[in-house]
From TrEMBL:
<dbReference type="Pfam" id="PF05700">
    <property type="entry name" value="BCAS2"/>
</dbReference>
<dbReference type="GO" id="GO:0006397">
    <property type="term" value="P:mRNA processing"/>
</dbReference>
<keyword id="KW-0539">Nucleus</keyword>
<dbReference type="InterPro" id="IPR008409">
    <property type="entry name" value="SPF27"/>
</dbReference>
<dbReference type="GO" id="GO:0008380">
    <property type="term" value="P:RNA splicing"/>
</dbReference>
<keyword id="KW-0508">mRNA splicing</keyword>
<dbReference type="GO" id="GO:0000974">
    <property type="term" value="C:Prp19 complex"/>
</dbReference>
<keyword id="KW-0747">Spliceosome</keyword>
<protein>
    <submittedName>
        <fullName>Pre-mRNA-splicing factor SPF27</fullName>
    </submittedName>
</protein>
<dbReference type="GO" id="GO:0071013">
    <property type="term" value="C:catalytic step 2 spliceosome"/>
</dbReference>
<keyword id="KW-0507">mRNA processing</keyword>
<comment type="similarity">
    <text>Belongs to the SPF27 family.</text>
</comment>
<feature type="coiled-coil region">
    <location>
        <begin position="134"/>
        <end position="214"/>
    </location>
</feature>
<keyword id="KW-0175">Coiled coil</keyword>
<dbReference type="GO" id="GO:0071011">
    <property type="term" value="C:precatalytic spliceosome"/>
</dbReference>
Amino acid sequence: MATEQAHTEIFDSLPYYDDDLQKFPLLKQKVEQELAREGKPPSTLHPRVPPPVELFANNPLLKQELDRVETGQSFPTLDTIRYQLPAPTSTPGTDKEWQDAINNARAQLEHQRIRQTNLTLLQNYGPNAWRIHNYLLEETAKQAEKALEQLQELTVEVNRDRKNTQDRVGKQLTSLETRWTELISSVLQIEMANVALDAEVERLNKKEAELAEL
């Protein structure tokens, strides 16, 4: 329970009202000296800070690619052997070597056929698909800009409310502090008057005693 209370504590000040550091340069110098003597800030994050997000935790291939980009490693070279049609190395080639060459040629032919089909599909439907994609990106960007604008307006409004509140509270604090100073001054004046009256009473008592003796 105590830990929860410690986490929910909020330490705030009145930066729009407190200007003691500007009024008293010596005080500002002392504050800077105290800050310089303090140790380094803790390396651990605040308990309310969410943990870091682990990207592609369920996709090892994408995670490996992300790690490669973060470490600055170059992209691995493409395997061009698959695009070649090597003939049998021996002369004359064995039946297995010729069969492997034929299978490779068929695979290359199928690959080229699929590429041609994909290019035809891209030529027919690619422009519209990209237009739709760009439209969605533009809408997403507009929504993000609108959200940013609303957040900035909210931030300005919060700061404005904080400033107005602190100005109002600051005036009350100034009035109360002035009143407190006046009351303290009145109390001191009364105490000084009491001391003077005590001295006067003591003097009169002495005078009365002297007259009684006479």
